[in-house]
Amino acid sequence: MLSYQHAYHAGNLADLHKHALLAWMLDYLTAKPKALSYIETHAGRGLYDLSGPESEKTGEARAGITRALAENWLPQDHPLQAALEQIRHMHGPNAYPGSPLIARYFLRPEDNAHLAELHPAEHEALSRVGGFAYLHKQDGFAMAQAVCPPMPRRGLLLIDPSYEVKADYDAVPRQIGLLHRKWNVGVIALWYPILIDDRQAPMVRALMKDHPEALLSEVRFPPARPGHGMVGSGMFVLNPPYGLQDEARRIAALYR
Fold first, then answer.
1. Which residues are annotated binding-site positions for S-adenosyl-L-methionine?
2. At 218, phi and psi to the nearest 5?
3. Which end of the chain is more exposed for a tag (fewer CB within 10 A), N or C?
């Protein structure tokens, strides 16, 4: 369960979907002069090099963020575009931010952040760029349950497991149910892969049965390479900020 490393997949079409919606939500939430909490259960290393051997091996970034920037998928004023430009100004033209550094771009001094990462090497890398947050080297669900409801109570929780084992799919609906009961005002966002064998489908059905008011955004795309099982990306959002549905539709239209 500690073998997954996102460096092989950073900047792919699923990241583009997830990060465009995340950046939009953070931009919306931080536009108001009220402090907030940002919580992330599976943070990864926070910063990726798209010229590195892992990215070059899979080519997923070339089909994702590199293509999107070349074809102007993101308007110049899109929140993700702004975050990416700052990260590349600071770290070089091949840098790509994971969700912790996207959050860092938007968070203000009065905001509070908690990031969990259990993988030893990924946690060590995260510690070099995650000084703006409380870092937790523990199971992300356990961390989220411990800190929720956070202070400030206004805020966003991102859940983004590796889904390396079936237990991840089984655990998510129960974990989200518990978190929502503890923190009913929080924006709770879950990313999940859409797979050829549809193993994510029971989880999504359970979530929507329990939370029919949630926003569900799914996009489809070809496998990154022959035999690759992921053919899409999904975002489930409880308490979606006003206007997120329109942004989700705009992003989804780019994948058609």
1. 19, 42, 99, 117, 139-140, 160
2. -130, 140
3. C
Helix (H, G, I), strand (E, B) or coil at 225: coil
* Alpha carbon separation from 77 to 15, 24, 88, 249 (Å, rounded): 19, 11, 16, 17
Residue 77 DSSP symbol: T
Does the annotation count 160 as an active-site position?
A: yes
Catalytic residue among 15, 111, 160, 168: 160
Burial 72-86 (b: 16+ CB within 10 A, else e): ebbeeebbbbbbbee
Q: Where are the domains of the chain?
A: 24-47+100-254
pLDDT, one tens digit per residue, over 94-119 is: 999 999 999 999 999 999 999 999 99
- The structural architecture, per CATH, of the domain 24-47+100-254 is 3-Layer(aba) Sandwich (3.40)
Identity (one letter) of the amino acid at 118? L
